[in-house]
Design the sequence.
């Protein structure tokens, strides 16, 4: 099996995994789902392949990429782990947690992946498609979100196609589960909030802190002030939309769409980017989103919305 020339998309299957692995071993890129969002994967040890990720996304080369590996043993072959990192890995891997760790000398990760830093952002994903692809290739895979840089992250294969165009191979395994990118932690500092909340981290470490929203030096993905952004202007914490705005509701606030009519933040996280894609494709020139509580995973939802609204 091979990817078709026109609309190169294959539904998840063992032959499709082999076809995707063939593309990656040849230095190509493939969009593949994880439990968070669809990622644009390449062999993390191949600088030319990684460069294709940056070219396809239009991504700034100072913005590092997350390396996906099959298990903790593979992660420890690439990076140094202290007691805190091992505790977090034991609690949350495989899953939507990325750890920023010192890169081991001779690890073989292309410097373009780390943006020249001496640390690497590393994760053990839970999704069957990414795990199968890691097993089939036998290589660590760099995989940022599979969309044009700064745009809305993709939670379905058609989001990838609309953002990256007709030529990128896509391994389609339906909608992603979490709908938000992974939580990123360096030491005991949260660099990007995500599905693994501050409270969950604190139960393991006892003490965590929030890093700056837009640091002067980017040390992990998702730290740019403007990110995850629709093409249209977006207003936040809106209960009454203007006539020219598409309102994404939440709970009691009704609109043209809703993240969760019952006010469930987990449902809202899973639906966030899908709702932003629909809103951006609507006939309204402006977008608005209802207030979302900031506790728990609401912190990560609001983080994405603030960056989406920054222009």
Sequence:
């Amino acid at each position: 099996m091979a990817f078709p020339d026109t609309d190169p998309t294959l539904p998840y299957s063992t032959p499709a995994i082999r076809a995707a692995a063939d593309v990656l071993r040849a230095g190509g890129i493939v969009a593949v789902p994880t439990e968070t969002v669809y990622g644009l994967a390449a062999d993390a040890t191949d600088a030319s392949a990684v460069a294709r990720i940056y070219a396809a996304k239009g991504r700034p080369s100072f913005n590092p990429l997350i390396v996906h590996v099959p298990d903790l043993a593979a992660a420890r072959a690439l990076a140094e782990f202290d007691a805190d990192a091992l505790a977090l890995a034991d609690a949350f891997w495989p899953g939507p947690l990325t750890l920023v760790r010192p890169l081991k000398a001779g690890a073989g990760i292309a410097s373009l992946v780390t943006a020249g830093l001496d640390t690497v952002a590393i994760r053990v994903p839970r999704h069957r498609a990414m795990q199968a692809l890691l097993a089939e290739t036998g290589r660590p895979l760099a995989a940022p979100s599979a969309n044009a840089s700064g745009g809305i992250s993709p939670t379905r294969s058609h989001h990838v196609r609309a953002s990256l165009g007709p030529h990128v191979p896509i391994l389609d395994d339906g909608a992603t589960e979490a709908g938000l990118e992974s939580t990123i932690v360096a030491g005991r500092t949260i660099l990007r909030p995500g599905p693994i909340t501050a409270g969950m981290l604190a139960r393991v470490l006892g003490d965590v802190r929030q890093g700056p929203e837009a640091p002067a030096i980017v040390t992990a993905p998702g730290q740019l002030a403007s990110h995850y952004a629709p093409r249209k202007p977006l207003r936040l914490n809106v209960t009454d939309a203007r006539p020219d705005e598409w309102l994404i509701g939440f709970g009691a606030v009704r609109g043209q769409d809703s993240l969760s009519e019952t006010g469930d933040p987990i449902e809202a996280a899973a639906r966030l980017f899908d709702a932003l894609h629909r809103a951006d494709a609507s006939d309204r020139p402006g977008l608005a989103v209802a207030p979302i509580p900031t506790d728990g995973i609401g912190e990560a939802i609001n983080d994405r919305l603030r960056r989406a609204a920054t222009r």
User: Anything to note?
Assistant: The first helix runs from residue 14 to 25. The chain is about 30% helix and 20% strand.
